[in-house]
Amino acid sequence: MTVDKRETYSFDTPISVGKILKKLNFLPFEVLVIKGDRLLTRDVVIRGDEEIEIRTVYSKG
Amino acid sequence: MKCIRCKKQAEVELKSHNAAFCRDCFLYFFENQVLKAIKSFRMFTRKDKILVAASGGKDSLTLWNVLLDLGYNADGLFVHLGIEGFSDIAKGKVERFAKERNAKLVVVNLKDEGIPIPEVKKKTRRVVCSLCGQIKRYYFNMVGLKEGYDVLATGHNLDDEVSRLFSNVLHWKMEYLVDQSPVLPSEEGLLKKVKPLYRVTEYETSVYAFFKGLDFVDIECPYSKGATFTMYKKHLNQIEFSSPGTKIDFYQGFLKNLKPILEKREEKVKNRCKICGYPTFSDVCSVCRLKGYT
């Protein structure tokens, strides 16, 4: 499984989205966790070699 | 996790509301929060002519989009700051947004006004973000009044408001606390200003922008690195995580408990700039001073 935020991280699966965010030091409402065109909540479990994108939500103005 | 309204698979969890929503129910929730803000503070009606301060970022485009979706008469104003590698990209995003929705967009170019931000930065020792904000507010107000708008709407969200409140309280900036509100009524020379996104967080705004497929500026302004409010937002997020609902309680508590006391001792601006007529405490406003008038 791969997380891409300009950097790419790999984790052993199965693993929940919540645990990934914790490992990467993100609070759940600081990022969008995206798979395809859907958002994932903390309880969703990532399996096998699934890929997700983690996008920070801070304003950049 | 299931949506609390329709029991479908949730895509969004909002601990501060003790809720989780699917896409459709989240959009319903979001629009309701905006409507609640508009109505509870009597920001504007569907008859009013609204000018949205559109920077090209997610908050301003979210605001413009939600107002159009809700049937409000909302045009956009973009202030081109003249910042290389940033302003042209932002302008492109705003123009595309307006074109796709057949919405009216007004553009002010600070180069044409003689005060592009890079030049302003060279001339002053002050923090450029604060001056940039001051210049933008000046043109939002001037254009809004000149073009006959009833109200100026900005995309400030709950996180913006709470971090600003936090900073103003930490440093006891009483003169800024007085002016902190989702609505600033119109006065002579000043257009009414409103913040219809004040009830929704940065996260909720991002989710809305994602669900609506909004194409916004995703690069950082080269001058905004290390902005203090960003640091405050991070600290406040830690508090919100430990105690969900703290941000909205802090802000609503301020509006209910402290704001009425501060309003009683408010000092009104008495002067007008002798060059442009903008309300100011001195003879010449700060924007005219930047332009070289004394």
Structural class of chain A: mainly beta
Helix percent of chain A reads: 10-25%
Strands ordered across the widest β-sheet of chain B: 5-4-3-6-8-7
N to C succession of SSEs of chain A:
EEEHEEEE
The Rg value of chain A, from CA coordinates, equals 11 Å
Greatest contact between two chains: A-B, 19 and 31 residues
Count the E strands of chain B.
10
The share of residues in extended strands of chain B comes to 5-15%
Order of helices and strands of chain B: EEHEHEHEHHEHHEEHHHEEH
> What is the distance, rounded to the nearest whole angstrom, between the alpha carbons of the first and last residues of chain A?
32 Å
State the shape of chain B: globular
Tell me about the biggest sheet of chain A?
A: 5 strands, mixed
**Main sheet attributes: strand count, strand direction, barrel closure of chain B:** 6 strands, mixed
Helix content of chain B: 40-55%
**Low-confidence regions of chain A:** 1-5
Look at the structure and give the mean pLDDT of chain A. 89
Number of helices of chain A: 1
